[in-house]
Amino acid sequence: MATLPVYRWRLAPEGLATFRQLRALGLRPAGQPVVAQLERPRRRKEPLVAFLYRIDRAKPVRPMTPARWAALAKANAARQVCPECGRDAGYRIPPSLGMCVPCADAPQLAA
Q1: Is 53 exposed, middle or buried (0-12, 13-18, 19+ CB in 10 A)?
Q2: How many CB atoms lie within 10 A of CB 100?
Q3: What are phi and psi of 58, to 5 degrees?
């Protein structure tokens, strides 16, 4: 297996972009393989890694259809319903709590 070229942070050649950079340009990788790797060094930790794609092979982002907008709205609404009390919290339930804040604080208040 061939290894990918590795570039240091901010030293990637022109014509290559990360996924987020492609998205900011309104593009998507479109199934193309990763052509290089970008590494950002950190102290006492492993470096942060980002994969690079060719900009000339990227395709435009697919537009959102009404069905996709409806599915996204339904999914977001489901993330606002507390599984404990069944109420709409009015915000996205944090995965760390798994329930709305009043339900998470109830055991602490009872003690």
Answers
A1: buried
A2: 23
A3: -75, 150
What is the side-by-side order of every strand in the sheet holding 6-8? 6-8, 36-42, 45-54, 16-17
Q: Is the pLDDT of residue 58 over 50?
A: yes
Ranges of beta strands (E only) in 1-111 are 6-8, 16-17, 27-28, 36-42, 45-54, 59-60
Three-state SS for 22? Answer: helix
Which position has the token pair 């990788």? 29
63-79 confidence digits (pLDDT tens): 999 999 999 999 999 99
The amino acid occupying position 82 is: C
pTM (2 decimals)?
Answer: 0.68
**Among 97, 73, 64, CA closest to 83:** 97
